[in-house]
Predict the 3D structure of the following.
Amino acid sequence: MYRLIRTAAYEVEPGHGPIVEAHHMMRPDPAWWAELTERYRSTRRGDPAYGLPTRHLGSLLCALAPGVVTADAQAASARSDAPWLYAREHVPDDVIVPLIDTWATELLAPRHVTTDVPGIAGDEADDEDGFGYWYGNGTPDNEREGCGPANDQHIEHLLERLYEAPPTWTTEDIDLTSSATSPAGTALPGRHVYRLLTEWVAARLTARPWHVRGRTLRFKAVTDGERSELVSWPPLRHVTHRRAWYYSARLSVHVQTVPFHGHFRVHVSPGIRRWVTGSGTRPGPGQRATVLLDAPLPWADADERTPRLIGNSVGYDHRLRRLSWQRRSTATLLPHVDIVRTFPDPEELFRSPEELLLGRDSFRAGITYHPTMQGVHRIGPGLMPRERAELDAWVAESLAPAFRRVPDLTRINRVSKPLLGRTADPDRTGVENSARNPVDVAAAGRRQALHDVLGGQALRLDIVWHSKDVRDEVLHALPELLGLPHPEKTSRDEWTSEAHGLTVRMCAVRRGVLGAPLKIPRRRGLRRATALGQAITARTEQVAGFPAPQAHATVIELDGRARYPRAGTDPKHALRIGFAATGRLTQFIQPPGEEAPDLGQRARSACLDVLRQIGAVPFPPHQAGAAIPENLQYVGLWLVRHTSRGPTRCATRRLIALRIRPGDHEPVHGWDEIRETWVPYRRLLLTLASDRGLPEEEPGTRVPGRPDGSAGRWHGFENPWREEAQRQIQSILFQTRDRPTLLLASAGNLRQCWPGLASGVLAPDELAFGAGEPGQRLSLYGPDLRFVLLRDANGRGEVPQWWARDEAGAIGFSAGLWTPGHAAGRVFYSTADVPHTAARPKGLMKLVPDADGRTAPTKNAWNPRGLEITVAGCLSAKALADAGREQEQPDDPADWAMLAHQLRFHDSYSPLAWPLPLHLAKLAGEYVLPMAKEGTEAQP
C-alpha cells in the first residue's frame, strides 16, 4: 500500500525571495479608447452590454509582437487605470500601432458584410448553433446602424489619431510572487500574478528542452486568459491502422490558492493533445474546432517565427455552407498583417490536415481533435503515472531554484471505504441474510432498496429497442443486478422475473419513429430556441401515444452522434420530456458499434441508472468513526447552468438540493421549490422535466431589451439572481435544522451564485454568502450543521494532478484520504480507485514508447480524479465556545473529511467523481430542460 502521493504543484522556495522582473506596460489613451468603444457599440445597435473584444487584440499582439507577454482584457477600458498590456522588452511603435489598426479596422466593419478573407463572414454568419441563416432578425444590411460614408470618415479620423499619438509605455519592476493574506490565512495573490507568473513559468519551460530516453521534446506556448498552455512542437508521430497519427505532450499552467493556506501554488498539469490528420474528421454543425497556427513573423527585418502558437476557432457556417473562421479568431487578421503569404482557409485545412501540420511554405497549422468530432482518433487520451512523474521531474528542475515541489501528502491511516458488503436489516421484507458472495450481497441491497421505494409493488420497465442485441442485454442485465432468475416470456412483448418477494415486469417495444432526427422548422425570423421547441413538442406528442404508460421507467436505444450530424436534431431531450409527461423516467443506451463497443457493460450501467432514478439507492454504512451522529442526514447542492447553446437552446439556472436520510424507506429526496417541500427523488426528476417554461419575471433568466430573450450576457442581472439563489439555500438550511446535517457543495459549481465560497473569502465555521458580506456563525443555520466544501480541477487546474509513490521509487495509483499537514487541519485530498475497465500498466509510456510498449500511444490512460475536501464548518472548540457549548467534545475535521471521502464509494458503480449526494444532485440536472415560449417571433 502506498503511503504517499505527490501532486504536480509548486510553491515559492522560502529562502529564494521574491521574483522581480522589469516589465514594459502600456495603457490605452482614455479618450481614444472611449471613442472606439462607442463606435463599436453603434455597430451593435447601441447595446450597452457589448464591450470591446480586447482578448482578440491581446491574442494578436502576443502572437506577432515579440516581447509582449499578456494582455488584461478586464483592464482595457476607459474607466481603468491598470495597465492592460505587458511586455518583457520594448516593442516599437511601428509594430504595435499597425496591429492595433488592423484589429480596430476589422472590429468596426459593418455587420453581415462578408470580408475579403477567404472562409470568413460577418458576425451573424458565424452560426454557432448550426441552425442556419433563416433565424436572422430580418433587418436588411443597408439599414444597419453605423453604416455609410459619414461613419467611414469618422473611423478613418479615429485611426489617424492612433498613428499621430501612439499609446505610451512605462517601465516598472514587478514582483511576480506578491501576495497578501486573508483574515482566515488564505493567500491572496496580486491580480497580475495570475497572468505574469504563468507566463514566467511557460517561458522557463519553453526555453529548456525535455531530454528523455534519447529523444528531445521542445514546447511552444499558447496563452488563453489566466492560463498558459504548452504543447510539444513539432508533434509526435505514431503509425497504426495503416496510417500515421499525430499527437503532442500538453502542459497547462495555473496559479491557484488553497483555503486557509498562506502560500499560493503553481499547478502544471500534463496531458495529451491530439491532432486531426484525416480528411474525414471535422467538426459537425453547431460544433467548433481549435486550430493552432505556427507562422513566421510578418515584419521585414524579422527572421524568426512567432514566439507562440496562435489559437483560432473554426465552425460550420450555413450562410457560406462551409467551414469558416469564427469572427474573433486571430486568423481573420493575419492576411491583413502579412500580405505576402497566402494563408489556407478552414476548408483547405480540413482537406489536407496532415500536409499543413507537417508544414507548407514555412507555415504550420494543427487542428486539435475532440471526441465530439466526426471520425475517430487512434491515439488514446491521457498519460499514465510513470510518465507524468518523469514530466514532473523535468518541470521541477526547470523551475528551480525559485520554486520547489509542494511536499508529498501522507495517508490518513483509517478505513477509507464504507461497508460495501453489508446487507440490509434482515428483519425487513424481501432481503435474506444468508448471502455471502459479494455479488449476491450487492443484489440483496438493491432488492431491499427497490422494495422500500416501491412499497412492495412490481417494478415495470419499458425497453424501446431497435436492435435485438440491445433488447436482450437489458432483459438479462436488470434481473441479474437484482439477483433474480432469467426472465420468462409471458406474452409477445412482455417478460417477467420474480423471486425473493420482488417482481420485475419488462415490456419490449420497437422504437419506430421515436429515434428519427428531429425536424427543425425552417422559417425566416423564427428564433432558434422557438424552432427547436416546436420540434421537441412534435416529438413529445408522438411519445404520448406510446404503449405502456404505466411503467416506472424506460430504457431507450438511441443511436450515436453520427446518426444526428445536424445540431439540434438529436431526439434525446425531446424523448426525456415526452416520457416524463407520462410519468416515466428515461435512460438511454447506444447500439453496438465503434463508439460504444462493450454492450454488456453499458446495459448493466443503464439498468443501474434506472434504479438510481427510481430512488432505489443502497446506502452503505460509513466507517468514518464513532463521533459521527447516528441520525445524520446529508444535503447536497448543485447549480444547473444552461446557456443559449444548451440542450434546448434556452438559458436558465436552477438550484437543485438533495437530501439523503439513511435508514428511511425512501432515503433520497429533493427540494421542490414550487411546493417548498421535500419530494422523493423520482418525483423531483419528473417535476424538473415538466417545468419547461421560462417565465420572463424569473430573475436572471431572460434579458429585457433583447428580441430573442438571450441570456448569453447577464450584465445587470447577476446580483438579483444571486440574491434569489442565496435565499433558496438559506431556506433549505432552515428546513434541515431538526437533526444533525452534513452540507456538501462544490466550490467550482456554486461559486457563481455563492461568492462566499471563494478561497479568499472562506472562513472556518462561518457562512458568508456575498463576497463583501461579513460571515455569520455556522450554528445560526443549524445547531448541528457541518459544512464540507469540495473542489476538483474544474477545467482550470484548481486541484493538481497526482500519483502515488513510495520511498523505493514505485509509482502508481492508490485510493484513500490524504493530508498535507497544514491549513489548520481543515484541507484534505481524496483519491479513488481506477475502474477495472480502465486498468492499464502503470509504467506505460506514450510520449516516448519503449520496446515493450510499441502500441502504448493507442491506449487510453485513466487518471482517477482527485478531490480537495475542505471541512469549512464543524463543531470546533471555538465554535462550541461561541455557542455556549464548551462542555461538548469538539469535532475532529478528519472524521468529516473521511466521511465525505467514503461517500464516493457506492454499490457496484465505479468510484464516483463526487460524494453521493452531489452525484445524485448533478445527475438530476439532466431533467432541467427549459423550452422557449410560443409567440416569440423576431420583429422584422
Notes: The radius of gyration is 29 Å. Residues 173-405 form one domain. The first strand starts at residue 4 and ends at 7.
